[in-house]
Amino acid sequence: MKKTICFILLALISTATHSHPYFGENRAPFEYLTSYLYGNPLIRKDTFIFNTFSTEENVVNTNFNQNRKDGSKTHITKLATEAQKAKVLVDDSAANYIRGDKRYFDYNDPNCLKIISVIPVFPIFSPICQNTLAAKLPSVSNNGISGTWSPAQINTNQGGLFIYTFMPFGGQNADTITIPILIVAQINPIFSQIGPYNLNQHPDLLPSHSLDGISGTWFPPSVNTSSSGTTSYIFTPDASQCAATVGIDVQVNALIDTTEMPATAAWYSTTWIEGGLNGEYCDLGINIIQVMRDTLIENKLCRIIGVTDAGKYLKESEIPFYSKNNRMYFHEDNEWKLLYNFDAKVGDTITYSISNKAIYYSKYGIIPFPIQTGPFTLLVTAIDTVYTTSGKALKRFQTENAEFRDNSMQNIIEKVGSVDKLFGSNIIIVPPECNTFPQLRCYIDSNFSYKFVEGACNNIDALQEEKKMLLSISPNPGVNQININIPNNMDLPLRYEVLSVRNHRVATGTYSSAQTLTIEADDLLSGMYIVRLMDMQGRLWIGKWVKL
Fold first, then answer.
1. Is there a single domain that holds both residue 287 and residue 231?
2. What does the pLDDT look like over 55-81, one tens digit per residue?
3. pTM of the full predicted structure?
4. Among 275, 268, 274, CA closest to 458
């Protein structure tokens, strides 16, 4: 009885009709079919590549060298095409065609073929960029197996390695397989800050590459500075970089309103040290009010002004100032407040305010208690001309309070301010022991300088000159008259004023003689008064007089 050969196919085998029903030269040695295949995870080691072929071909795979039963070597010499490959599990007992010491089988015998399973084959999935649109998963494999996927479609919302399972439909003898798909995390391109620019300023070119090397294009393609405001520029990365589209905001500022106050502006004065209680002549120190730096507020270029008192800078004294069109403002409580109007005319009433920080700017030193900040109202009573050290003419405004308030500006010099320092004088405090008086010494900037005293502005040795600026007044104390000796070096005519301890002007006038100036004092109340003379150069002489 003829023994039937049976072997099991792991893939569909073409059963085309051949002129001869056997391997090789009409037959195939069985031992050739019992090769073990290693290194391919899709093929079990008890399987190998089985090929269909015509009788004219010598079917050989050079990957497999086999021992014949007689000990000699043989091998298969021709590779099959992909379409002809299938995996075969061979039952050794099935071989019953024997020639000598070799066994053969008939692969065309339908009783000896049994389909076990087919492994679906798909193309290799390339890495996919995060947040991009992925292609649909194929519903049919390369080798014709149809089925469904779980998950049903590729999700690119998150980076990482994800497993997708292909499940063949029934009746195909096909295996379920899993395929890993890599989602590459998206890169957010990084750029250096672009701008801000000023109106109509020539802008930089938008970079073609980000700081992390991502190339791309911009929309709009270039920065436009013809109008102010904020514009978003969109960077779209070139393909295949797994990079995100990003937007960059570019600010174009309107034309900056530049202050007219010079960046070098400085006011030098003297103040009492420790309240003026250190001896017959109260000790004086140099006080400097000056521009420290610039800042931008509401598109206005401002100067930050601060106070250095007796060598110590007072950070808490800083105030933003802005000058424009012959007016000076300071910024406080989120608004600009007028301090000076240098275009005022005789008879004008000016409303102004002083800063909450004016306590650091007092001519007498830091005021240790709160003061009124206004608004205050002053009346311009006279205007004349004084001259800088270089001969530049400046207007001098004589003012008086339009209402009974503590703060007073008294005499104001154009571009400089009050002769009682930047915020005027809020109150006069003169310790009885003090025979020197703090005063504004100089104003200096890059355009001009103005001196109220002889000598240096900021040299501590020059403080002795303060004594030379003291007035000789008699009788002192007195009752009815104030007699003042006119200094020989005064540039006449002079302006005089008598101030109460509350800084209210009780007497004022001009005087052109080099003789003794007499001021009637019958109507004055008993108490201490400050007498002040100012010559045409703006220099100040000060004295203290007491009425009995």
1. no
2. 333 333 333 333 333 444 333 333 333
3. 0.50
4. 268
